[in-house]
């Protein structure tokens, strides 16, 4: 099937949060990402589907009208985890192109347990202070291509994930074969992130030709003790940064845990990371390697070639 938005068309989510349906938590997370229990269903969602296209004419927009949800988060009045704007689960052969996604209540585009997903020529927008409005989060998915996108949100522009602590380890589905290229954008958090939920493993990632500005962290590889899993075979090449707080950060002390039952001895590994041809202007800190934390449980190789003032 094809969901086609005509030129200038806008699909708006209701702001009636009291009647928003609930669904079960993802098995690789074990609970809602923000709160225990169930979670609000995504505004547009599909489960077990294939051969689907979402596209639009000029300025066709999907608007989550998320400010009511952001205010509930700030006021700590949420009862369940906020809805994503778009989520495909257990699906394959999906193309998302030429659509404007804006004002998501939570994560914007979330393919989870999917394969063969192409996301191209999309624009993803949310206010700089909107909480947890990640742009695109491929999660326990394989063969995902994200290209020619503009993203400006309140959280990570792209974050590769694969499950949360003991639930992600038990589910055991990695994210693999992820390509991110020709992306530009800004965020108070990370431009390109891996993690922090990587308990099912992340491997074979290519990131190239990225342009970041007014961003917290440029390239951010993040995990934590108790995650388990691995991050390996990651190549990042040709990145331009302007006004970024930390250019490159590899850290092993990021993120919380779903409950008290996670295995404190489940130590993740980070191995085979190559970052090269990175250029920056007005960078506060070039590289932040958390040696003390990573050395406890990780091995990584990070040959870096940089120019400019990064």
UniProtKB/TrEMBL annotation:
Claim: Hydrolase is one of the keywords in the record: yes
A molecular-function term among this protein's GO annotations: polygalacturonase activity
SMART domains noted in UniProt: PbH1
GO BP term, pick one: carbohydrate metabolic process
Keywords: Glycosidase, Hydrolase
Keyword Cytoplasm: no
SUPFAM superfamilies: Pectin lyase-like (SSF51126)
Family designation: Belongs to the glycosyl hydrolase 28 family.
Protein name: Glycosyl hydrolases family 28
Species the sequence originates in: Musa troglodytarum (fe'i banana)
């Amino acid at each position: 099937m094809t969901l086609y938005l005509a030129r200038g068309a806008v699909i708006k989510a209701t702001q009636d949060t009291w009647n928003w349906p609930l669904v079960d938590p993802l098995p690789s997370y074990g609970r809602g990402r923000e709160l225990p229990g169930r979670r609000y269903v995504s505004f547009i969602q599909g489960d077990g589907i294939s051969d689907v296209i979402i596209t639009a004419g000029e300025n066709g927009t999907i608007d989550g009208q998320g400010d009511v949800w952001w205010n509930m988060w700030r006021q700590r009045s949420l009862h369940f985890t906020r809805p994503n704007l778009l989520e495909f689960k257990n699906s394959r052969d999906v193309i998302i192109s030429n659509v404007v996604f804006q004002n998501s209540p939570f994560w914007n585009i979330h393919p989870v347990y999917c394969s063969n997903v192409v996301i191209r020529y999309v624009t993803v927008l949310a206010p700089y202070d909107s909480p947890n409005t990640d742009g695109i989060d491929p999660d326990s998915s394989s063969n995902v291509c994200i290209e020619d996108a503009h993203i400006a949100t309140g959280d990570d522009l792209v974050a590769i994930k694969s499950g949360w602590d003991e639930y992600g380890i038990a589910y055991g589905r990695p994210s693999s074969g992820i390509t991110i290229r020709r992306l530009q954008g800004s965020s108070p958090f990370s431009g390109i992130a891996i993690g922090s939920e990587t308990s099912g493993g992340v491997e074979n990632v290519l990131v190239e030709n990225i342009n970041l500005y007014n961003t917290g962290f440029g390239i951010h590889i993040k995990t934590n003790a108790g995650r388990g899993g691995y991050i390996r075979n990651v190549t990042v090449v040709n990145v331009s940064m302007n006004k970024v707080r930390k250019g490159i950060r590899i850290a092993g002390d990021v993120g919380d845990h779903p409950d008290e039952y996670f295995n404190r001895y489940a130590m993740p590994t980070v191995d085979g990371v190559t970052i090269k041809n990175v250029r920056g202007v007005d960078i506060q800190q070039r590289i932040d390697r958390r040696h003390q934390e990573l050395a406890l449980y990780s091995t990584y190789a990070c040959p870096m070639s940089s120019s400019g003032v990064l």
